[in-house]
Amino acid sequence: MSYMVTLLSMTVSLDELPDTFTTATACGRGMHHRDLYRLRDSGAVVELSRGVFRKADSEQASLPDLLAVAYRVPGAITCCLSAAAVHELTDEIPLTTQIAVPRHQRPPRIDHPPTQVFRFAEATFELGVGTVEAAPGEYVRVYNPARTVVDLMRLRHRHGEPVALTALRRYVRRADARPGLVLDIARALDVFGPVRNALDALIAE
After folding, report:
1. How far apart are CA 21 and CA 72, in angstroms?
2. Count of Cβ atoms closer than 10 Å to residue 106 Cβ
3. What are phi and psi of 171, to 5 degrees?
4. Cα–Cα distance, 82 to 87 (Å, whole number)
5. CB-count exposure of residue 143 (10 Å: 0-12, 13-18, 19+)
6. Residue 42 sits in the same domain as residue 77
7. Which range of residues forms the domain containing residue 12?
8. Do 30 and 117 have their domain in common?
9. Mean pLDDT of successive 10-residue stretches along the chain, which has 205 residues
10. Are 86 and 142 in contact (CB under 8 A)?
11. Is 99 exposed, middle or buried (0-12, 13-18, 19+ CB in 10 A)?
C-alpha cells in the first residue's frame, strides 16, 4: 500500500517511462530524484549502470551490459571481443564490455559494467557499423562481423593472435561470409597485408 502512495506522490508515473531510461529522462519528465531512487530501492526498477535504469517487470534484456553502456555513451560502438561474442565469432567470454569512441573524444570511465574503451580514427569510425537488439525493441550500435575480424587482426597484440585467427576462421565458414569485404575494410584500416595472408592460409586449409 505504501508503494501506491509513493506512486501517487509523483508528477510522472513509472508507466509513462520507457522500459530502459536514464535519470535525465525521468527527471526531465517530472520525476524527482528521491522518487526514482525509492523505486530502485523497492525493486520496481533495476539500475543497470550509474544513472541507467530498467523496469523490473519489462521483458528481459538479452544483452544488458551492452544496453547499459549504450545509454551511458550513446555514440559509442560495441567492438572487438564484445562484438565477436555478439556475432558468435569467439568462445571467449569478455571480461569487460568493449566499446569504441572517436579518437578526439575523451574516453568515458564506466566502472559498472566493467568497460574497456578503444579510441578509433574518426575517418573510419563509422565503417562497418550495424546494430543488434540488446532488449526487445532496443538496439545498440555494434561493428559488423567483417569489421570485427579486421579489428581483432589489427589489435591482435592486445587480444592475442589465436583469438583473431579463430574469429577470422569462423567468419569465412559462415554462409554469408564476404572475404572481399573483409579485405576492403582491412585496406581502409591499413592492415591489408596481414589480413590477406591470414585469409589465404585459411582458404587453403
Report:
1. 10
2. 8
3. -65, -50
4. 9
5. buried
6. no
7. 2-55
8. no
9. 42 84 90 89 94 94 96 96 97 93 91 95 97 97 98 92 95 94 97 94 79
10. yes
11. buried
